[in-house]
# Entry
Amino acid sequence: MKIKVGLVGTSQLSFPGPKEEVYAKTVEQMKKNAKEIGFDFVYWPKQVIVERDAGEAVAYMEEEQVDFLMVLNVSYSAGFLVPVFYRIKNAAVGIWSIPETKKGPVMFNSFCSNNMYQGINDKYLRDYKIKAKWFYGFADDKQFLRRLTVTVRALQAIKKLKNSRVALIGGFAPGFYDLYFDERSVFSKLNGISINRLHEYDEIIKRADKVTDAQVKPYLDELDAQGIKMTPNAAKLRAFSIKIYLAYRSLVDEYKYDAIAVSCWPKFQDDYKYSVCSVLGMLNDDKIVAACEGDLMSAISMIALQEMSGQSTTLMDFSAFDEQDESVLMWHCGPSSTVFCKKNGYTLGENYSGMAHEPGKICGVGVARDMVFDEGAASIFRFSGDMESYLNLSGRFMGNAKDSNCGCRGWMDQLKLNGKPIGALDFTNTILSGGFEHHYPIAWGDYSDEIAEMNKWLGIKSVKKIAYENYLQDSEDAE
# Structure
């Protein structure tokens, strides 16, 4: 879902630099940037000099429904222009300046104008609480492009979230009280998002019962063609898995959901001695965000990660930590997309939770994906509580470097919280002393900058490090 970026150029007659030429070159480069980064682009063709000019430019941008207005101070510009720009309706604002000539008379004085505009926002317009991001450089400068890319991804994620339809199917997992939230808080942050909590487990079963063998066969043939290894129990249940998958797909297609949170236990285990884990993996393969255990807030968070990364995401537990190599184990029963195991693939087996465990006997229920995540950079992000805070963790999955339990899993090292290195013990203490929820949405790639910017626009605070101490700690001890 592309955002629309609008560009307006401001100037003042008293500065002698080639302002029209600079602006024209900027427009052409921004057209190239739009194609490469992935946003729609419009621009105001005239230089804005007086307040009336600013009003006309803003009216045009509002009519175009831009999501982000960039105000380029081609030269030093009048202070009475910027309140008009800052108060544009339904758009974020960026204030941009260009480098000055290195000697001789001042040709543009662009940067000084940027400084003044941001000062006006903070002091003169303080009661409006307007957020604005500054930019510096020419439109093809490397640093400028990186800064713009972060903003585009962050605002695209917000736009996607505000236009998303999310559903809970079957309720929360029993006893998972830390996953509850007040949906009104979500509406206040993401005006336009739709949340439906009313779908029941039986709706999926009824849909699955209507799936024919002929509809199932192409999927079975594809599994055979891929040569996916599976346990006898998983093989016995694979046709049933496909029926359940198609049932979820039909519900998603009918209601046009962007994400679902699924009650994956205990009903499937009680009624069918079956686990829906691999089905969630199949849905995530299709880029239908599917969160297990009824975790709606993680499903919403996964939408943002998927929009930023362009790839399927997954939902994990934090299962262990190791101070020896400063790593943490991210694990879950078996619901992950194949994008996490392109190197070594996966097998189909059992989920060992959800049923009583008898001494000396494995009591498993199929079908779950068993995979070790490939080596590579990854991001962990989740809105917390009633969206008053968020977790922003990045790191590197270590591949097969360490032993781990059956399921979907990966050891992660090189940990950074909010872009700053953090040890495994300090991270563990941050989570436990701060009372963070026990679910962790994950995407490939480092999107810590984008995550931070998205939440800054939304007005949500980051989870801060709580350095480990031997005495009792809580969130008030965060740095």
Residues 269 and 326 are 36 Å apart (CA to CA). Residues 162-477 form one domain.
